[in-house]
Amino acid sequence: xxxxxxxxxxxxxxxxxxxxxxxxxxxxxxxxxxxxxxxxxxxxxxxxxxxxxxxxxxxxxxxxxxxxxxxxxxxxxxxxxxxxxxxxxxxxxxxxxxxxxxxxxxxxxxxxxxxxxxxxxxxxxxxxxxxxxxxxxxxxxxxxxxxxxxxxxxxxx
Length: 157
What we know:
By secondary structure, the chain is of the alpha/beta class. It has five helices and four strands; from the N terminus they run βαβααβαβα.
């Protein structure tokens, strides 16, 4: 079982969307017994809350249901997950910083490392933007999650 943890700042927009997109792809390929997903944030401000209603609305239009409840990253996540995928450079640096002894460096990756058709350095936070920001996030996540799934399945062979 490959366990993936998606990370953004508050765990209410990007990371729960990545979790839902990836879960959908995993289910479509019948790989639910091989890959599991979760999401978390680098801050705990939104802990216990569902995903942002605007993000939920845009995701649902594409067939993704955001079911996760916001939580913050915990030290035990380093042990519990095989891949820790961050949405932007700030999240990447914060997770790297929490790995003071550099025991988990190989697990920590950027979401955009897996993009195949988009050339971007991060998945931007749509929180303070309009509808196009949420659509852009979903476009990027669909591309990156397909690449991530390819990476995982190729690596297992």
